[in-house]
Amino acid sequence: MQKVLVIEDDKRIHKTLRLLFESEGYGLETASDGSAGLEAFRSVKPGVVILDLKLPKMSGRDVIREIKKEAPSQPVIILSAVSEEIDKVLLLELGADDYVTKPFSPKELLARVRAVTRRAERTLPAECYSFGDILVDFAKMEVTRDNRVVTLTPHEFKALKYFTENPERVISRDELLNQVWGYECYPSTRTVDNHILRLRQKLEKDPVNPVHFRTVHGAGYKFVPFLKTPVEA
How far apart are the C-alpha atoms of 130 and 133, rounded to whole Å? Predict the structure, then answer.
Protein backbone atom coordinates (compact mmCIF):
# COMPACT_ATOMS: atom_id res chain seq x y z
CA MET A 1 0.00 0.00 0.00
CA GLN A 2 1.46 3.36 -1.03
CA LYS A 3 1.47 5.98 1.70
CA VAL A 4 0.54 9.63 1.34
CA LEU A 5 1.70 12.10 3.99
CA VAL A 6 -0.48 15.20 4.44
CA ILE A 7 1.17 18.08 6.35
CA GLU A 8 -1.72 20.46 6.95
CA ASP A 9 -3.09 22.22 10.04
CA ASP A 10 -6.76 22.09 8.97
CA LYS A 11 -8.28 18.95 10.50
CA ARG A 12 -11.26 19.18 8.13
CA ILE A 13 -8.90 18.66 5.22
CA HIS A 14 -7.37 15.69 7.04
CA LYS A 15 -10.82 14.09 7.24
CA THR A 16 -11.67 14.82 3.59
CA LEU A 17 -8.37 13.46 2.28
CA ARG A 18 -8.49 10.39 4.51
CA LEU A 19 -11.85 9.41 3.03
CA LEU A 20 -10.58 10.14 -0.47
CA PHE A 21 -7.24 8.33 -0.39
CA GLU A 22 -8.20 5.36 1.76
CA SER A 23 -11.16 4.67 -0.56
CA GLU A 24 -8.61 4.50 -3.41
CA GLY A 25 -6.33 2.05 -1.60
CA TYR A 26 -3.73 4.50 -0.25
CA GLY A 27 -2.49 4.65 3.32
CA LEU A 28 -2.74 8.16 4.79
CA GLU A 29 -0.58 9.76 7.48
CA THR A 30 -1.20 13.29 8.75
CA ALA A 31 0.70 15.99 10.63
CA SER A 32 -0.64 19.35 11.82
CA ASP A 33 2.54 21.44 11.95
CA GLY A 34 5.80 21.72 10.07
CA SER A 35 8.05 20.15 12.68
CA ALA A 36 5.77 17.15 13.17
CA GLY A 37 5.44 16.84 9.41
CA LEU A 38 9.21 16.64 8.95
CA GLU A 39 9.45 13.98 11.66
CA ALA A 40 6.60 12.03 10.03
CA PHE A 41 8.36 12.24 6.66
CA ARG A 42 11.49 10.70 8.13
CA SER A 43 9.63 7.86 9.85
CA VAL A 44 6.86 7.09 7.34
CA LYS A 45 8.89 7.37 4.10
CA PRO A 46 5.80 8.27 2.03
CA GLY A 47 5.33 7.87 -1.68
CA VAL A 48 3.95 11.42 -1.93
CA VAL A 49 3.93 14.41 0.44
CA ILE A 50 1.04 16.90 0.29
CA LEU A 51 2.25 20.06 2.00
CA ASP A 52 0.51 23.25 3.11
CA LEU A 53 2.60 26.42 3.01
CA LYS A 54 1.30 28.21 6.11
CA LEU A 55 2.02 25.88 9.01
CA PRO A 56 2.63 26.35 12.74
CA LYS A 57 6.16 25.91 14.18
CA MET A 58 7.88 25.50 10.80
CA SER A 59 6.84 27.00 7.46
CA GLY A 60 6.01 24.87 4.47
CA ARG A 61 8.90 26.43 2.57
CA ASP A 62 11.35 25.32 5.24
CA VAL A 63 9.80 21.86 5.32
CA ILE A 64 10.20 21.34 1.57
CA ARG A 65 13.78 22.63 1.74
CA GLU A 66 14.60 19.98 4.34
CA ILE A 67 12.74 17.21 2.49
CA LYS A 68 14.49 17.93 -0.79
CA LYS A 69 17.85 18.19 0.96
CA GLU A 70 17.39 14.73 2.44
CA ALA A 71 15.57 13.12 -0.51
CA PRO A 72 15.86 15.12 -3.75
CA SER A 73 13.56 12.77 -5.69
CA GLN A 74 10.75 12.77 -3.09
CA PRO A 75 7.48 13.86 -4.79
CA VAL A 76 5.94 16.87 -3.05
CA ILE A 77 2.64 18.55 -3.95
CA ILE A 78 2.00 21.98 -2.48
CA LEU A 79 -1.52 22.65 -1.21
CA SER A 80 -2.06 26.33 -0.42
CA ALA A 81 -4.33 29.35 -0.70
CA VAL A 82 -1.35 31.33 -2.00
CA SER A 83 -1.67 31.63 -5.77
CA GLU A 84 0.67 34.43 -6.87
CA GLU A 85 3.03 33.46 -9.67
CA ILE A 86 6.11 34.53 -7.69
CA ASP A 87 5.24 31.93 -5.03
CA LYS A 88 4.83 29.24 -7.68
CA VAL A 89 8.21 30.14 -9.14
CA LEU A 90 9.84 30.01 -5.70
CA LEU A 91 8.30 26.62 -4.93
CA LEU A 92 9.41 25.29 -8.28
CA GLU A 93 12.96 26.32 -7.54
CA LEU A 94 12.71 24.66 -4.12
CA GLY A 95 11.76 21.40 -5.83
CA ALA A 96 7.95 21.18 -5.61
CA ASP A 97 6.54 18.66 -8.09
CA ASP A 98 3.09 20.22 -8.39
CA TYR A 99 0.91 22.96 -6.93
CA VAL A 100 -2.80 22.88 -6.04
CA THR A 101 -4.56 26.06 -4.92
CA LYS A 102 -7.27 26.07 -2.26
CA PRO A 103 -10.19 25.60 -2.53
CA PHE A 104 -9.40 22.44 -4.45
CA SER A 105 -11.19 19.51 -6.03
CA PRO A 106 -10.36 16.26 -4.18
CA LYS A 107 -10.54 14.34 -7.47
CA GLU A 108 -8.09 16.76 -9.08
CA LEU A 109 -5.69 16.34 -6.17
CA LEU A 110 -5.97 12.55 -6.48
CA ALA A 111 -5.19 12.80 -10.20
CA ARG A 112 -2.12 14.93 -9.47
CA VAL A 113 -0.90 12.47 -6.84
CA ARG A 114 -1.17 9.69 -9.39
CA ALA A 115 0.66 11.78 -11.99
CA VAL A 116 3.65 12.63 -9.76
CA THR A 117 3.77 9.00 -8.61
CA ARG A 118 4.03 7.79 -12.21
CA ARG A 119 6.85 10.25 -12.88
CA ALA A 120 8.68 9.16 -9.72
CA GLU A 121 8.36 5.49 -10.63
CA ARG A 122 9.71 5.94 -14.15
CA THR A 123 12.55 3.46 -14.62
CA LEU A 124 16.00 4.95 -14.48
CA PRO A 125 18.14 4.35 -17.58
CA ALA A 126 20.80 2.65 -15.46
CA GLU A 127 22.09 2.83 -11.92
CA CYS A 128 25.19 4.55 -13.26
CA TYR A 129 25.42 6.58 -16.45
CA SER A 130 28.44 8.26 -18.00
CA PHE A 131 29.09 10.69 -20.83
CA GLY A 132 32.25 12.64 -21.55
CA ASP A 133 34.00 13.10 -18.20
CA ILE A 134 30.70 12.95 -16.29
CA LEU A 135 29.59 10.03 -14.13
CA VAL A 136 26.04 9.96 -12.72
CA ASP A 137 25.03 7.58 -9.94
CA PHE A 138 21.22 7.63 -10.02
CA ALA A 139 20.87 5.42 -6.96
CA LYS A 140 22.93 7.81 -4.81
CA MET A 141 21.80 10.97 -6.62
CA GLU A 142 25.46 11.93 -7.17
CA VAL A 143 27.23 13.52 -10.13
CA THR A 144 30.99 13.70 -10.56
CA ARG A 145 33.13 15.38 -13.19
CA ASP A 146 36.76 14.29 -13.45
CA ASN A 147 36.20 12.54 -10.09
CA ARG A 148 35.09 15.80 -8.46
CA VAL A 149 31.59 16.06 -7.02
CA VAL A 150 29.22 18.38 -8.88
CA THR A 151 26.26 19.72 -6.90
CA LEU A 152 22.96 19.83 -8.79
CA THR A 153 19.63 21.21 -7.60
CA PRO A 154 16.69 18.76 -7.54
CA HIS A 155 15.32 20.03 -10.84
CA GLU A 156 18.73 20.12 -12.51
CA PHE A 157 19.10 16.46 -11.56
CA LYS A 158 15.59 15.66 -12.83
CA ALA A 159 16.33 17.43 -16.12
CA LEU A 160 19.61 15.51 -16.48
CA LYS A 161 17.77 12.25 -15.76
CA TYR A 162 15.13 13.00 -18.40
CA PHE A 163 17.80 13.86 -20.97
CA THR A 164 19.65 10.59 -20.33
CA GLU A 165 16.39 8.72 -20.80
CA ASN A 166 15.88 10.44 -24.17
CA PRO A 167 19.29 10.73 -25.87
CA GLU A 168 19.56 12.18 -29.37
CA ARG A 169 15.89 13.23 -29.32
CA VAL A 170 14.75 16.84 -29.69
CA ILE A 171 12.77 17.74 -26.57
CA SER A 172 10.62 20.87 -26.50
CA ARG A 173 10.61 23.30 -23.61
CA ASP A 174 6.94 22.52 -22.93
CA GLU A 175 7.73 18.79 -22.71
CA LEU A 176 10.53 19.46 -20.25
CA LEU A 177 8.26 21.63 -18.11
CA ASN A 178 5.57 18.96 -18.05
CA GLN A 179 7.81 15.92 -17.56
CA VAL A 180 10.48 17.38 -15.28
CA TRP A 181 8.54 19.99 -13.31
CA GLY A 182 5.04 18.57 -13.71
CA TYR A 183 3.41 21.91 -14.43
CA GLU A 184 1.24 22.09 -17.52
CA CYS A 185 0.70 25.84 -17.13
CA TYR A 186 3.93 27.37 -15.92
CA PRO A 187 4.50 31.14 -16.12
CA SER A 188 7.45 30.96 -18.54
CA THR A 189 9.54 28.42 -20.43
CA ARG A 190 12.47 30.71 -19.67
CA THR A 191 12.89 28.58 -16.52
CA VAL A 192 13.94 25.67 -18.76
CA ASP A 193 16.53 27.84 -20.52
CA ASN A 194 17.99 28.93 -17.18
CA HIS A 195 18.30 25.33 -15.97
CA ILE A 196 19.94 24.18 -19.21
CA LEU A 197 22.36 27.10 -18.93
CA ARG A 198 23.33 25.97 -15.43
CA LEU A 199 23.69 22.33 -16.53
CA ARG A 200 26.07 23.50 -19.27
CA GLN A 201 28.06 25.58 -16.80
CA LYS A 202 28.41 22.61 -14.46
CA LEU A 203 28.81 19.73 -16.92
CA GLU A 204 30.20 21.06 -20.21
CA LYS A 205 33.91 21.68 -20.75
CA ASP A 206 33.05 24.74 -22.83
CA PRO A 207 29.56 25.98 -21.80
CA VAL A 208 29.53 28.55 -24.62
CA ASN A 209 30.04 25.78 -27.20
CA PRO A 210 28.21 22.79 -25.67
CA VAL A 211 28.59 19.32 -27.12
CA HIS A 212 26.15 17.44 -24.87
CA PHE A 213 23.25 19.83 -24.16
CA ARG A 214 22.50 21.36 -27.54
CA THR A 215 19.95 23.92 -28.59
CA VAL A 216 17.83 23.08 -31.61
CA HIS A 217 16.59 26.54 -32.57
CA GLY A 218 12.83 26.83 -32.77
CA ALA A 219 12.33 23.31 -31.39
CA GLY A 220 14.00 22.80 -28.01
CA TYR A 221 17.04 20.88 -26.79
CA LYS A 222 18.82 17.64 -27.62
CA PHE A 223 21.10 15.61 -25.37
CA VAL A 224 24.10 14.11 -27.21
CA PRO A 225 25.97 11.70 -24.88
CA PHE A 226 28.89 11.07 -27.24
CA LEU A 227 31.19 13.82 -28.36
CA LYS A 228 30.48 15.32 -31.74
CA THR A 229 31.35 18.64 -33.34
CA PRO A 230 28.93 21.20 -31.89
CA VAL A 231 26.68 22.77 -34.51
CA GLU A 232 24.50 25.07 -32.41
CA ALA A 233 24.89 26.50 -28.95
Answer: 7
